[in-house]
Specification:
homodimer; three-stranded antiparallel sheet; 5 helices
């Protein structure tokens, strides 16, 4: 199937959403935890978390802050400066998925969706107790993406909690940590590690 | 295991790279194809491709353009305004991985890594023939991420080629399209679709 720009523009809104939300490939499944200055917690699923750099350890995610009834994650981060990112695991995909409902600010998705707030040391934002791979971030910068009125929210990792099962000589094995991927808006995947290749040095490139 | 900011800062560079490159979760495996104004093609693996919006169909990826010996993807896009993004499939993970070598500009990774240039209609940049899910993009905007000297390169989809196997009523099934995920720098994953949930309406949220 070949869609050209005009074909894409002419798709109905829902079909276009489903297709274009899948074309980048698999996306990571994470929950972002926040709290406002009155102590009201919020939890929201995001598939747009992205690695930006390792030194400092900088992570971004894309947010749509410009509507009234959603964007509590964004406004809480602006208020407090702190948030958590928590991997989703297969056992609580359904709970995590329903955090995408447009709940009122008074409703905590932790409580409504059956997930547990966890506070670690004096870190201000709530972690998800059910997640075994999670991090606490300090807000560093927001970058407006004017082309479609979204924002890239950038933070630095201050706390990193992860399972003991990774080898320091290898990438973290996301099959062993039970990480989950997303396509589009509603489809969830488990992962099978199928290949591990070395860092590429020019004099070691095989003939193809 | 719990690493705090000081622990992360004090890791050796390679260990920190491996860990922090995995903490966002699974990343999509894509090849970006470009050509310069002299007709020299380039192909490079990226794990930072991200969906930014569906209308218009806007995709971003993160690039590190500020070194001499890498960044041909970025400079070619600045030169010509066009590029392709091609899904990696299990049969050519190894070929795709080795495009990360720091080849000279005169070397085309298509040829050196055993992948085939494909030109579709009059689209300026080369596609990867071996990929069954790919798109041609027109450069729209670059956004400097000053915090670590990277750039978010933003483009709009002008051509979209994808397998016939997806259902218009559902997200595209990335298990059926043989999409691949990456953790860290060197580890590759296949995908198993395990759950599909509905769009969330507040009055349909189950009790948890």
């Amino acid at each position: 199937m070949h869609l050209r720009k005009n074909d894409i523009d002419n798709l109905d809104r829902i079909t276009r959403l489903k297709i274009i939300n899948s074309v980048t490939g698999i996306k990571p499944a994470n929950l972002v935890g926040t709290v406002d200055n009155e102590g009201r917690t919020n939890l929201a699923i995001f598939s747009s978390v992205i690695h930006l750099g390792s030194n400092p350890a900088i992570i971004g995610f894309v947010s749509r802050p410009e509507t009234d009834d959603v964007g509590h994650t964004y406004t809480n981060i602006m208020e407090t400066g702190y948030y958590t990112i928590n991997h989703i695991h297969p056992e609580f995909i359904k709970n995590a998925h329903y955090t995408s409902g447009k709940f009122a600010k008074e409703v905590s998705e932790f409580e409504r969706c059956g997930l547990t707030e966890e506070y670690i040391h004096d870190f201000k934002a709530p972690f998800v107790k059910e997640s075994s791979f999670k991090m606490g971030l300090r807000f560093r910068e927001k970058i407006d993406i004017k082309i479609n009125n979204t924002v890239l929210v950038i933070g630095e990792i201050e706390e990193l909690l992860l399972p003991e099962i990774f080898s320091i000589d290898d990438d973290i094995d996301l099959q062993l940590t039970n990480a989950v991927g997303i396509s589009g808006l509603n489809s969830y995947y488990s992962l099978n590690k199928i290949e591990r290749l070395p860092y590429v040095r020019l004099n070691e490139v095989p003939e193809f």
